[in-house]
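ok so i was messing around last nite and threw this chain in just to see what happens. nothing serious, just curious
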Amino acid sequence: MRVLGFILRKEFRQILRDKTILAMMFVMPTVQLIIFPLAMDFDVKSVNVSVVDNDHSTYSRSLISKIGSSGFFKMISSASSYKEALKSIESGKSDVVLEIPAGFERNLVREGSQKLGLSVDAINGSKASIGGYYLNAVIADFNAGLDVNLKNRNTASQKIEVTFSNWFNPLAMYKYNVVPAVLVLLLTLIGGFMTALNIVREKEIGTIEQINVTPIKKWEFILGKLIPFWVIGLIVFTVGLCVCFVVYGIFPKGNILLLYLFAIAYLVALLGFGLLISTYSNNQVQAMFIAFFFMVIFMLMSGFFTSTDSMPHWARVLSEFTPVTHFVKVDRMIILKGSGWNDVKTEFFYLLCFGAVLNGWAIWNYKKTS
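result:
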């Protein structure tokens, strides 16, 4: 332990002397955690609509007014023909073209039905699907409120009405889903890159040769490299939780000590992975590119952008072999749902296994040469 203490003293002095590294590890995650969730808002709030009204009736004007007043749509143009309205989609000004056919009101009153034309720009698949769903919902609500349908409604018929509530996120606000995941990803990027460049930096400046001829054991060297960034990672995590509360009003509903227990286990696994990359790399460029390759995979497979349940079977299996997936899941469960130990204990053992395997591999792969 005395030898480990000397290594830790040397590592902390080296980190504290480099002001750039300190700024990267504390200032950058804080700024990014403030900006990213605000920019990464996947809620569709403004869908541009071009209307082709071939009927010019009371019903058609009421429908257009209802769509415009819903708060989700912006009526940008009223075209005289479908061909003219389509040009607004081609130019990128419109997201949806709504075509109301001639005889819209007459057919609704006399025949009880009428089709509408709806053309959606599907280049942005998310905006197209959600915008189309919103518009269909507004049209369905308009249809249900028509006088002709209210008069013809059979009061004796039974009707099933569905009411629902959003648990853990009552207003269905996207920030509550994305902020905890962004915190994990920033912790992953900072911790992964810093440790991936750590040992290889010693190789480049030549101090690794001096360390290798000392009686320092391999596990002491790896542990001495891991602990400083583990401490810094916990500080960054604490700062991130403070930002979540101050900026977004998000505070863990579950036990905060349980959250820190998982952060401790996750950082051990993550930093072990970074040190493993560093033992295989000969220079910092190699380490940076290898770390970047795996970090992109971790981000895409973690369930942050796409739910793991929506992935193909092979992708779900692969995601289980990334520690980020498990911590993102637990982070959301504890912060948003208030989950307890019994709900997340399986994920904890996953992280322990990752930490043991990755750090053991790093110790085994580190070669001392005389």
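not much to say yet. Residues 218-248 form the longest helix (31 residues).
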